[in-house]
Specification:
Order of helices and strands: EHEEEEEEEE
Protein name: Hsp20/alpha crystallin family protein
Number of strands: 9
Pfam families: HSP20
Mean pLDDT: 81
Family: Belongs to the small heat shock protein (HSP20) family.
Domain SHSP: 24-136
Number of helices: 1
InterPro entries: A-crystallin/Hsp20_dom, HSP20-like_chaperone, Small_HSP
């Protein structure tokens, strides 16, 4: 249901983790993601702990889904002396190419416990359906 667009994204993510670099608007850090089908919906779950909902931006253009978020530093008083800072700050982004079989007009987004969950319905035209066989009206009935 989704297509990967950048085979080197995981390598970039590992390099950023090892180097301790933060994402910027021009070069955002990737965010961890799970994607799976659940019944008639396709579900994408993105980890965004510590990000407020007003700092999350979700866009769909044609079949390209883009999620951007920014984790901002927490304001600390003048008396605070930082001993350890491992939680990444900055800009995070993920782009996912969605298949034509998904209904991008009806995406639902929920954010709970630091996880952004997007639910994308499978398009009606992509669902399996039975085809009825009609009678051929050109055949003549034989009476007998």
């Amino acid at each position: 249901m989704l297509m990967r667009t950048d085979p080197f994204r995981e390598l970039d993510r590992l390099t950023q983790q090892l180097m301790g670099t933060s994402g910027t608007w021009s070069r955002p850090s990737p965010m961890p993601m799970d994607a799976y089908r659940e019944g008639d919906e396709y579900v994408i779950a993105l980890d965004l702990p510590g990000v407020s909902t007003d700092a999350i931006d979700i866009d769909v253009e044609r079949n390209m889904l883009t999620v951007k978020a920014e984790r901002r530093p927490i304001t600390k008083g003048d008396t605070v002396q930082m001993e350890l800072s491992e939680r990444p700050l900055g800009v995070f982004s993920r782009q996912v190419m969605l298949a034509d079989t998904l209904d991008t007009e009806h995406i639902k987004a929920d954010y709970d416990a630091g996880v952004l969950t997007l639910r994308i319905p499978i398009a009606e035209r992509a669902k399996p359906r039975k085809i009825a066989i009609g009678r051929d009206s050109t055949q003549k009935q034989i009476s007998g």
